[in-house]
Design brief:
It is built from eight helices and 18 strands. The strands form five sheets. Strands 3, 4, 5, 6, 9, 14, 16 and 18 form an eight-stranded antiparallel beta sheet that branches. The chain is globular and about 50 Å long. The chain is of the alpha+beta class and 357 residues long.
Length: 357
């Protein structure tokens, strides 16, 4: 059909643009995502760009690629020494040698369901979130190497909100190490959307065997947050691993094969996820979401995002051991979102300013 031909042509364009290896196959096209670092850009404002802004490190070619596809891989952006330091800190946190205020530690559902004795080390941890209070891991989010690119997406005044270090475990046979295809913006109650970006850095070689990221090129340009929900997977789904409900299985996908230190920047509406880790080792990555510092908190009540924010509220109540009669439980969603963002957002470049409500 015509749509199929257009999708194949699109993937061929990406393959030609990115200097791709033959490791990933989709509809007969072999694709991964590689793009070299860019120098500082002094291009004037142009109507051809919506998802990037003047300033920062993106070249014209990189801006054009991101505008069309919604993601951009920069090779070898973070040094191995820095990544090793983040990995060591993660191990210290998992062993209980370092305590980080407000940190969330997540374990795979298959391990929890097994009722086995859970070891007190990194083999039991699939992800840590909200590490803004840890100076070592926050060094990633505030690193000049990353921020020079973030400025091209979020502008000169940048804040950090959502932080993660992901430790994707070897799949136990339940396929629970998968992360369904989703949009990050589903969980974020602020605007403008186009000034939000994620930086995701591979802490080791990642490919399809250990569950690399998979993206749907150009899906951000639909400009809409889709309805999400928990997939009906036989082995269960990890908490807050919601996926798009009406995803078209025939949509062309690109698997991002990356090396240690490579970093992908992607738009919050880009449809993406990751597959199973079929190896015997853990697959690590560190990531951070950035937003324009003076973004506006919105009320998501009655929108497709309401379920997501209520879910986050429920998790917060359980973590803080609060019941349904507590003041937090009776906040409006906008009040909760405002409180959550005020508590966790950290300005990292430019005018610290403040969020608007």
């Amino acid at each position: 059909c015509q749509g199929h031909k257009m999708a194949v042509a699109r993937l061929k364009t990406i393959a030609n643009h990115l200097n791709l290896s033959p490791e990933v196959v989709q509809w007969g096209s072999r694709v991964t995502a590689h793009l070299t670092s860019g120098r500082l850009s002094s291009l004037p404002t142009s109507p051809e760009f919506r998802y990037t802004v003047d300033g920062g490190a993106l070249t014209h070619e990189q801006r054009t690629f991101y505008e069309e596809n919604g993601f951009l891989v920069v090779k070898n952006l973070i040094s191995h020494d820095k990544i090793d330091a983040y990995s060591t800190r993660f191990e210290e946190i998992c062993r209980g040698e370092v305590t980080v205020p407000n940190l969330t530690i997540m374990k795979d559902i298959s391990l929890v369901k097994s009722k086995a004795t859970i070891p007190k080390d990194s083999t039991s941890v699939t992800k840590i979130q909200v590490f803004q209070e840890d100076p070592v891991l926050m060094g990633y989010c505030s690193s000049p190497e990353v921020l020079q690119y973030v400025e091209s997406f979020s502008g000169p005044n940048i804040s950090v909100f959502h932080t993660m270090l992901i430790n994707k475990p070897p799949d136990s046979g339940t396929k629970s190490s998968r992360h369904p295809l989703h949009q990050d913006m589903y969980y974020f109650p602020w605007r403008p959307i186009d000034r939000v970006v994620c930086a995701w850095t591979a802490m080791e070689h990642v490919d399809r065997s250990n569950g690399c990221l998979v993206v749907v090129p150009g899906s951000h340009r639909e400009g809409k947050i889709k309805e999400h929900g928990y997939p009906q997977w036989e082995g269960g789904v990890n908490l807050n691993y919601q996926g798009i409900l009406d995803y078209d299985e025939n949509s062309p996908r690109v698997h991002l094969v990356m090396e240690k230190g490579d970093t992908v920047f992607f738009h919050p509406l880009l449809i993406h996820g990751s597959g199973m880790n079929r190896t015997k080792g853990f697959r690590k990555a560190i990531s951070c979401h950035y937003l324009q510092t003076d973004s506006i908190i919105i009320d998501v009540t009655g929108t497709v995002q309401e379920q997501a924010i209520r879910g986050v509220l429920d998790i917060a109540l359980k973590k803080m051991k609060m019941n349904k009669d507590s003041p937090m439980a009776n906040m409006s969603l906008k009040e909760f979102a405002t409180n959550a963002v005020q508590t966790t957002a950290r300005p990292v470049r430019g005018n610290p300013g403040g969020l608007r409500y």
